[in-house]
Amino acid sequence: MEQPSAIELVARWASRLTLAAVPEAVRHVARACLIDTVGVALAGTRTHVARIAREYACATSAEGTASVFGCAQRLAAPGAAFANAVAAHALDFDDNCDAGIVHGSAIVIPATLALAEATGASGSDCVTAIIAGLEGEYAVGAAATRSLYDRGWWTTALLGPIGACVAASRLLALDPQATAAALGIAVCGAGGTKPVFGTDGKPLLAGRAAEAGVVAACLAARGASGPRDALDADRGLAHLMNGGPFDMSAFDSLGSHWRLLSPGIDVKRIPLCLSSHAAVDATRELAAGHALAPSRIRRIVCDVPPIVAANLKHRHPRSAQQAQFSMPFAVAAALLFGDVGLAQLDPAIIGDATLQRLMARVEMVTGPRWDDAARSAAPEGAFVRIEFDDGGAIETFCARARGSAARPLGDAEIDDKFLMCADYARTAIEPQALLQRLHRVEDLRRAADLLGTRAA
């Protein structure tokens, strides 16, 4: 008997998933992802790239019933998914998962919310779809191993259409055959490479990933076919884009091993690329124990794994997006301001002469200490050494940043982050009321009620 393909395994599992079959611990993490993603999307609406995405979507998409963060116009689900996913990723403040090394929620959740409003789905339908989409995408990411990311693919854009498509297919109640067709379409059209880091292309590709997943599911719902071996065929994603590695055993545990719990979700404490977070935490630890006058500092050396050095490529950032991928900015801002928040991404602050002088003293290196064992224990860790003009020095090591799955933020901290983001967004939606609805999303009869709106 012919063995099912990876797409068929995901499709069979996702199309039959019920919320009752999901442990409460998994549902709790999914709700936290929803709260965090809506918060960072609201904050993201203030960015230039999110405004571009909204204007484009409103000008080119069909009118519909799906809400668009930051404006009153309603769009059909694909357009809303695009605009809202761009907003969710615009500040690089959204969550990560090590299974695939992807920003899963910023793609899956906007796609889910847009289609849920359009279809009249319930809050529990939404949560089921979110879990199906995230777990399906993370299973593919785990099967591909981290080599996909290491080869230069931006896996959020490459694998994001899979998560969005699974979630959309679940909301449309597609059977396993139609879900597999949708996934085939989504996989064959996916792509994304890392040169987008530090540019508008990064959040825009996130938006395209959400849109593509919704479109693939809607096409399959109308009878379109797609290749069921698009992941594992001789000319499928694993061979063409990953050089062959693809662990099919990753799909055996769907529904029993929940990747929302292990490896878990990294919820960002600060709005920078996660690769800088351990260095920021180490810097703040040193600053807390010593009186560090910037004028006394001769050099700051950050010894990091190769993946961190590759991601944080902007030595002299001039924009907020470049600053989010800059180790000198992350460390210098943490020293100068005590931490890095949305306020520090102001171009005027990035260009401040005092900050620029301190950034010039920050060096990022990677060396032999980062063998396989060290990278496994601290995949984005950092040794930070601060050297002074008088010859003295202090140093410390941070293996995993606060907010990572290994050192998670508490529920109250995630709520505080949401309220801070909502306040930054100056949203017309009352933040506390929205937060309460997000916490009880599973009780909502209509997902349209989540944002204080109702689908027609």
Alpha-carbon Rg, integer: 22 Å
Annotated CATH homologous superfamily of the largest domain: 2-methylcitrate dehydratase PrpD
Structural class by secondary-structure content: alpha+beta
Distance, first to last CA: 48 Å
Which architecture of the largest domain does the CATH hierarchy give at level 2? Orthogonal Bundle
Most strands sheet? 4 strands, mixed
Please tell me the total number of domains: 2
Shape: globular
Q: Regarding CATH, which class of the largest domain? A: Mainly Alpha
* Low-pLDDT sequence parts: none
The percent of residues in helical segments reads 40-55%
The helix/strand series, from N terminus to C terminus, equals: HHHEEHEHHHHHHHEHEHHHHHEHEEHH
Q: What fraction of residues sit in β-strands?
A: 5-15%
Write the CATH fold name of the largest domain. Answer: 2-methylcitrate dehydratase PrpD
**How many beta-strand segments?**
8
Question: What is the typical, i.e. mean, pLDDT?
Answer: 95
Give me the side-by-side strand order of the main sheet: 6-5-7-8
Total helical elements: 20
Keywords:
60s Ribosomal Protein L30, Chain: A, four-stranded mixed β-sheet, 2-methylcitrate dehydratase PrpD, two-stranded antiparallel sheet, 9% strand, alpha+beta, single chain, 456 residues, 2 domains
